[in-house]
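Appendix B. Chain record.
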Amino acid sequence: MAKGPRYKVPKKRRREGKTNYYKRYVMLKSGRKVRLVVRLTNKYAIVQFIEFSLGGDKTLVGVNSKTLFKFGWKGDPNNTPATYLTGLIAGLKAKKLGINSAIPDIGLHRPTKGARVFAAIKGCLDAGIDIPVSEEVLPDDDRICGKHIAEYAKELLSTNEELFKKRFSEVLSRGLNPIELPKHFIEVKEHILKVLS
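Structure tokens predicted for this chain:
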């Protein structure tokens, strides 16, 4: 560890790997007051619209992917389709509050093309929020509706039924065949748009 009279101890959240203060500073300098914050845990996706304030950041809209179960979602709450739908709900709620634009904040997640954080951002874009993001990094429609999961499930079912039941046990227990995920995604998306639009 570094020592000496000029050594400065990093802030606690930086030491814990939670906040990159330089990136945060650049975002705040951009002039946009509202940040679209996307965070992924081991089980859920969290999408928030947060406004900077000198007294502390204010969360204007916060949606956890657990909310999807209220709209009839039977799939995994942390996959690409669920993350997109969480972003869509957050975006629709933000529009109702008069939030029309935001700057994306993916925290310490790596900006990988087609990643789940970008699925959440695409959900907000589809809700009508103006977000400066390159089209290249957004996942395609097939990935967003879960076709890759359905294809994997179909292949696994034909080669190893026992492993299929083990891998998709939670989804199967909720009454959803993972091969039907794209169809289920469209039904839930339509329901969300009907309720929140």
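Further analysis of this model is presented in Appendix C.
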